[in-house]
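cron nightly-structures :: item 1 of 1
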Amino acid sequence: MIREIINFTNNLLEDIPDIMEWKTQPSKGLHVFIDIDEKGRWVNQNLQKGKDYDYYDGKNQNISLWSDCIRYQGVSDYITMNKVQKFDSKQKIHSCSPFALAFNFNFNDDDRKSLGIKKWKKGEKPTEEEKNANEDLVRSKRIKIISSRLKDYRNNALKMYSGADTEFRQIIDGFYSQMPSILNQVQDIPEYKSIIDKDYIRIYLRTIPYVRQQSYYAEYLKSEIFNDEKLSCGELGVIGFQTTFPNKKTFVKHKTSSLIKGISQRYSRDEALILNNFEKLLKRKITVDKKDFRCLPNPLPIVVDRREINKEIVKLFNSENDPMSYKELLKKLFEGTNQKYLSDYYLINYSNTKDGLKINDFDFVPLFRFNIECTISNCIELFNLNDKKSISNVFELEKEISTLFQQYNDKTGNGKSFLIGNYFGDKFEPSKGHSITEETTASFYKYRKSIYDYIYKSRLQSITDKMFDDMVYSAILSDISKDEFKEKRHTKFYAIGEKLNIWFSLYNLFTNYNKNEITMASKVTDLMSKMRSVAKGESNFETPEDFAFGAGQIVSYLIDRSVAANKTYAMLEPYLQKNKSNQLQDAIAQTIAIYKHDINVYKGKFERLASQVLTDDCNMEMKPLLKYFLAGCFCPCVIYESEKDKENNNN
């Protein structure tokens, strides 16, 4: 796994030399460039905006020194915060170079308390004057602390950059001797008053050419890239990238391992640097007009021994003016290369969290098929709905599956899936004003990894027919529990009907049923035809599916007879709870007895259909037949069809 990442990153750096400059931005705050002559004198004391300094507010990228800010920050930033201790033991200064000074204004609660800095509690509303005074105090205290750390920082930095110490000693000495004056001048910059909390002030020694600073920084990185020098073995060491240290967790330490100090793998310094660059690329993100642009897609495919495809994927992902999703990326890739599939690659799903980079999933995919051919049929015969909806790729399939996990806004009635896509994130509760049941969310979190594997890895065995049945049935039960009867209509009629269409239309994707060359969607059409024939007295029930569908037709008709004020689909629940077909027959018979006064049996349609349902003598488990029962409930009831309708259906 790690070896493939190293090869992938190394190839990218060779094929796209400037990739480490993509999707980069300076830290929010002030960036100041200082010129010191060979005698240690400060040359550009009259700091000019756009020439000697610039302010980045985190939004406006149209600043004159944008490129310089990125470059000089890149050769002075720390590897990890722990590494900062070698420069400033108290970790107040966050740069790692004798040619730069970086610090922010973020104080922890203990420091705020000891320094008299206020932290406003929730609900407190300070006046503008109080707020400004407190921010001024934050800035003045931080400048004082930084000034007290300059001597140690300078000495430690020169130890780490011994070559620079010899070549540029007088210029560096001048830089630090002038720093009190430089800090005073920085405080006179108008934008200084805008800096607070995690905003940075970065002061760069511009006199030393950037290429020289870059070479010194590269040497520093190489010497400090290992995570723990004590665990190193010569030129091989432990890297920080996704490495844990068993010594820190005694109870999970390998007691019987023969590995050196419990470490399974060590890498060369060059390999460690490559992995460090890979981690930077994964974390790389800029925000423009509230849009997040990343350098690498998520998930990220790394194709084995196909560097040209890897290069094409990365360049394609960075080619648009708008952020590109993984779905859009693959669509463009398959359309642009005329490929029908992607094979032999590792797929990495990752998250950039407040605690650092987190790898959610790393798996090998032997074969991924983007294009599929299936159809969502309107087998339930919903009004104002097209007969068929074609699906041409796996992400269109994902969109249809998302229908099973939608929440509906109580005010607008609009449905939106907030679950699909959250394949690895923490579980969360639906927002207020939206309707979704615990059963639906539980169903998603139960199957989300299986859905991800099916869609993103073409792992067709990850979803079985029983799992799919459970997903859809849970979603329909959720709609049934949320149904209301308003203005002589059920609010969840179409939502349930759409899910039934998905159930029957997509069922064959998750089963070997299609070996019989019979689609589930066509079975509903056949069952409707069968019900019409039974209602006319021309045929009898022959299969368990006939019984279940017919029972659904009868129950639908009986619910219509109810005069209840709140006639919702919750009335289906007593029938859905029956485990055996004879129990369902008893429940139907009892309901007929209740509404017999409102049932006209002389026309024969209800009488013929009900007699077939009530006299069926095969005592069956109802769970496998629930889909047919619900289909019977929500398909047009043949009992209501007129003679003219029957003639049209027979033509």
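cron nightly-structures :: done
The chain has a mean pLDDT of 87.
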